[in-house]
């Protein structure tokens, strides 16, 4: 009936190696190597990533506080309204 999608072309000189899914160990070393590596990578990058976020948060809080202060009504402006 024709060729299937994976058999449309014959490529010479290409060698592929595959490992059976039953022989792979997907979580090999995840606990013994992965957890310490996670802490090491966090420790190395925290001082590179955290300061810009902290500065941005402090700027945002200051701007929001100043905006709230400037948009409040002044009670002295409404003393003589009756």
From TrEMBL:
Superkingdom of source: Eukaryota
Q: Which processes are annotated in GO (biological process)?
A: mitochondrial electron transport, ubiquinol to cytochrome c
* Localization of this protein: Mitochondrion inner membrane
Q: How does it sit in the membrane?
A: Single-pass membrane protein
The entry's cellular-component GO terms read: mitochondrial inner membrane; respiratory chain complex III
Q: Which UniProt keywords apply?
A: Electron transport, Membrane, Mitochondrion, Mitochondrion inner membrane, Respiratory chain, Transmembrane, Transmembrane helix, Transport
Pfam families, per this entry? UcrQ
- Please name the InterPro entries in this protein's record: Cyt_bc1_su8
What is this protein for, i.e. what is its function? Answer: Component of the ubiquinol-cytochrome c oxidoreductase, a multisubunit transmembrane complex that is part of the mitochondrial electron transport chain which drives oxidative phosphorylation. The complex plays an important role in the uptake of multiple carbon sources present in different host niches.
Question: How does this polypeptide assemble, per the annotation?
Answer: Component of the ubiquinol-cytochrome c oxidoreductase (cytochrome b-c1 complex, complex III, CIII), a multisubunit enzyme composed of 11 subunits. The complex is composed of 3 respiratory subunits cytochrome b, cytochrome c1 and Rieske protein UQCRFS1, 2 core protein subunits UQCRC1/QCR1 and UQCRC2/QCR2, and 6 low-molecular weight protein subunits UQCRH/QCR6, UQCRB/QCR7, UQCRQ/QCR8, UQCR10/QCR9, UQCR11/QCR10 and subunit 9, the cleavage product of Rieske protein UQCRFS1.
Spell out the family assignment given in the record's similarity comment: Belongs to the UQCRQ/QCR8 family.
Designated name of the protein: Cytochrome b-c1 complex subunit 8
Q: What is the lineage of its organism?
A: Eukaryota, Metazoa, Ecdysozoa, Arthropoda, Hexapoda
